[in-house]
Design brief:
Blueprint (H helix, E strand, L loop, with lengths): L19 H8 L2 E2 L5 E7 L3 E2 L12 E2 L2 E7 L8 E3 L2 E9 L2 E6 L5 E6 L10 E4 L4 E5 L7 E8 L7 E3 L2 H7 L4 H8 L4
Antiparallel strand pairs: 1-2, 2-5, 3-4, 5-12, 6-13, 7-10, 7-12, 8-9, 8-11
Helix pairs in contact: 2-3
Length: 185
C-alpha cells in the first residue's frame, strides 16, 4: 500500500455551530410571514373530519403537523395565534423568550432554550388560541426550534394580533406586549 493515501475523514467541530444562513440552507428554510424562517417537515396524511372538530375549524384537518423555524434578529416571530395546541422544541442556538397571552386574559413570559441550570427548558407548550410572539436577547445570533401542532394547522387557523387591542385586553401584560412588539404594527 505504499504510495496510497487513505481519504481523510471529515468530522464536524462540535466547538462551533453553523451560522444562521448555513442552517437556512441545510434545512431549506424559507421566509415566513409569522415565524422567521420555516420549513414544514411533516403533515399527517390522516384527516380529522370537520364534524369531529370544534366549529371554528371550518373543515377537515390533518391529525398533526410539524415544522422547523429559525428566529434571527431580522426575522422574529410576530404576534399571532393559531387554533391548535403547539409544542416548541429548542434545537440549537440562543435561547428564545416567548410572550404568551392566554385566552383567559392572563399572560406569561417563558424562555425556551438548553441552559437547564438557568431555568430554560427545551420544550414549551403553547395552548391553542394563545397569542404569542418572541424575541432574542440583544446580541444573540439565532434560535433554531421546531413546532408540532395538533390538529395540524392550515392557513385559516392563523390570526395576526392587533397590538393596540391586545394592550387593552391584557392590561397586566401591556408593558411586555409593547417591549416584545416595539416596531410592530
Amino acid at each position: 500500500m505504499s504510495g496510497d493515501t487513505e481519504p481523510k475523514e471529515e468530522t464536524m467541530d462540535l466547538g462551533t455551530r453553523p451560522t444562521a444562513n448555513e442552517v437556512k440552507v441545510m434545512l431549506g428554510l424559507e421566509p415566513h410571514p409569522t415565524c422567521g424562517f420555516v420549513a414544514e417537515t411533516y403533515r399527517s396524511p390522516l384527516k380529522i373530519p370537520a364534524g369531529a372538530l370544534p366549529e371554528a375549524y371550518e373543515g377537515d384537518r390533518p391529525y398533526g403537523s410539524a415544522l422547523y423555524f429559525l428566529v434571527a434578529p431580522d426575522a422574529q416571530i410576530v404576534m399571532h395565534r393559531i387554533r391548535s395546541d403547539q409544542l416548541y422544541h429548542h434545537y440549537m442556538g440562543d435561547p428564545l423568550e416567548v410572550l404568551m397571552l392566554y385566552p383567559d386574559g392572563t399572560g406569561a413570559v417563558t424562555t425556551v432554550g438548553s441552559d437547564l441550570a438557568a431555568g430554560e427548558r427545551p420544550q414549551l407548550f403553547v395552548p391553542g388560541d394563545t397569542f404569542h410572539t418572541s424575541r432574542l436577547e440583544p446580541g444573540a445570533d439565532y434560535a433554531l426550534l421546531a413546532s408540532t401542532e395538533w390538529p395540524g394547522v392550515e392557513p385559516p387557523d392563523v390570526e395576526h394580533g392587533d397590538i393596540v387591542a391586545l394592550v387593552e385586553s391584557y392590561p397586566d401584560m401591556a408593558e411586555h406586549i409593547r417591549a416584545f412588539t416595539s416596531g410592530a404594527r
